[in-house]
Amino acid sequence: MKTIGLIGGMSWESTVTYYRIINEVVRERLGGLHSARCLLYSVDFHEVEACQRSGDWDAAGRMLADVAARLERGGADCVVICTNTMHKVADAVCAGTRLPLLHIADLTAEELRAAGVSAVGLLGTRYTMEEPFYRSRLEDAGFDVLVPDEADRVLVNDVIFKELCLGVVSDASRRALVEIIEKLSARGAGGVILGCTELGLLVRPEDTSVRLFDTTEIHARRAALYALAEA
């Protein structure tokens, strides 16, 4: 079994989910008392978010590249950035380590392709929804990517940073996000990507008839399969 290097803490609310899913998959595959071999470096999200807000992505990239190098020295066999937004600095992370990076957008694209989806809605932070680092990766893979209108993008971003990252799960926010998901479906999306690792804490498949692609579940499961040489 390979050792998974996790860059977590962005936020720690969803990093908990990563750890649980990775270990559940390993237990399902190997049985008994098996659990995953993994190293977790949990950053101080306050520092990362300050870089995001100020637009200092170079500093954020250096920060995460340093973490990746530490994971490599600790014996990790791959790197997993446990957040969608910080894949904006994926190139910097890759430059800081010889380890393979399991890119969340690439693994999500593989899931979309397997599901036969060609047009997909994307929810996430405003960085993920509005900037090309994530959307272009999906578009280059052949998908039409739909994002909410400006007012709904603001709402989704606020729910993420002002509620979910602080451990607040609101029924009113769940209803609002389901409405946004259904708008994307009405515009032609064959499914909707929960493109922030906290969104799965709020919206579940049973909340809507629209097919959801939870990037936290996809990323964590595929990391576990990679460690087991099944992916």
Automatic annotation (TrEMBL):
Zinc keyword on record: no
Q: InterPro entries per the record?
A: Asp/Glu/hydantoin_racemase, Asp/Glu_race, Asp/Glu_racemase_AS_1, Asp_race
What Pfam families would the database entry show? Asp_Glu_race
Q: Which UniProt keywords apply?
A: Isomerase
User: Recorded GO terms, molecular function?
Assistant: amino-acid racemase activity
Describe the family membership recorded for this protein in Swiss-Prot or TrEMBL.
Belongs to the aspartate/glutamate racemases family.
In terms of PANTHER family, this protein maps to: ASPARTATE-GLUTAMATE RACEMASE FAMILY, GLUTAMATE RACEMASE
Question: What's the name of the protein?
Answer: Aspartate/glutamate racemase family protein
Native species = Candidatus Bilophila faecipullorum
